[in-house]
Amino acid sequence: MKMMEKNDAERAKKHFFAAQQTYYDEPLTLVGGDGTHVRDSAGTEYLDAFAGICTNTLGYGDTEVAQAVAQQAKELIHVSTLYLTEPMLDLAEKIADIAPDGLTKSFFSNSGSEANEVATLIARTSSPTKSVDLLALDHAYHGRTAYTVALAGQSQWRNFATQMPHVAFVPNPYCYRCPFGQKPESCGIECAKYAKHVIESQTDGHPAAMIAETVSGVGGIVTPPDDYFKVLKETLAPYGTLLIADEVQAGWGRLGDGWFGMVSSYGVVPDIITSAKGLASGFPIGITITRPELADTFKGPHINTFGGNPVATRAARVTIDVIEKRDLIANCKQQGEKMMAGMRDLATKYDAIGEVRGKGLMIGVELVHDRKTKAVAPDYATKMLEEMRKHNVLIGKGGRYGNVLRIQPPFIFDDGDVREFLEAFKGSIATLR
Ligand SMILES: Cc1ncc(COP(=O)(O)O)c(C=O)c1O
After folding, report:
1. 355 in ligand 1 pocket by Cβ < 6 Å?
2. Which contacts (CB < 8 Å, 24+ apart) does range 21-29 have?
3. Is pLDDT at 1 greater than 60 in this prediction?
4. Atom 7 (ligand 1) nearest CA
5. Distance, CA 216 to ligand 1 centroid (Å)?
6. Does 333 lie in the same domain as 241?
7. From the alpha carbon of 144, which atom of ligand 1 is closest?
């Protein structure tokens, strides 16, 4: 361990809350980056395949974002949502252009948690029965505010204030460990249909909304079968239950088919979309997007001091423009397929790889001690993070059992990055035996 990092670890221990999670036995202090690579305080470079938790869409040091941000910071850094600003208006108009038909209104905040709180408030105020009930998925993760903690479907993330809203949980479409013991090719999407039973037995019969990540991120890159959201939406419709797509991780093209994964990868238009993370390529931003008739039931007054911040909304607009200009959604698809193919190839040799799954650049690798019993291997996941670090590559981990590697790099990953990643992965996975 470098001297500098040792000091930083001690400083953090002294002044940060113990609850703050950092990766690695010896935490990493990062000081700069360029493109897909980030640099630590000792000058070591790492290929970043986790992008600041699925956030640095354009990687590090993108000149268009940097210039727009510098310019905007000189002109106007902050005024609050009490005033209108051109960057906020411009971004809202652009998002209305690229969002599915009818979703033309946005509310800006600063994070995914806030975006989800606004979505559930809209659902509750627009509910004809004023239901306070909500549905969420097992294994779900929707943020760390008290309210969104209650929407978490993983015990390790339900560690406080979970009694606030009434939330009933629907089985997750986790095909690798199907809760119904079925196979995706013949299951009839029973897990989505089961929402009927949950509504009728565990709610007031008309839950205001169901919130679902299009692909569960923290839950372990659980990638639903193709018809999942169609069947889910049909199941919810008779109860007047709205569908909220949490695209905090899956939005803006990461899944490789279009701007919003539930729409372009699954063919379903949700009632409300929430997002954050990658929208402003690293600047704090949250957004809740919906149809005017739903947005307008939410009368307020509602305010967010930093919501729609001019610098963050400028960064977001430039991020969207660069994604378009450089065809980065297609790049997510192409590079994601190459990475998954490379790791599936390695799975023929290494039994620790239970499954490689994902869409675009949202990829999960589930690690097991035994392929037959699928015994979970969280120890392997921890070791893989450390080994990949030794190979100068950063990845993440998650999953209900902590045994899924999360690979969610910047959209600008190129062929060289994919080769570098796979080389490091090969060297690291070989150490698990
Ligand atoms: C799917 C999803 N929703 C919401 C959130 C919360 O976002 P934030 O940490 O910006 O509050 C996260 C964060 O990881 C997330 O993955």
Report:
1. no
2. 23/385, 23/396, 24/385, 24/386, 24/389, 25/386, 26/1, 28/389, 28/394, 29/4, 29/5
3. no
4. 112
5. 11
6. no
7. 11
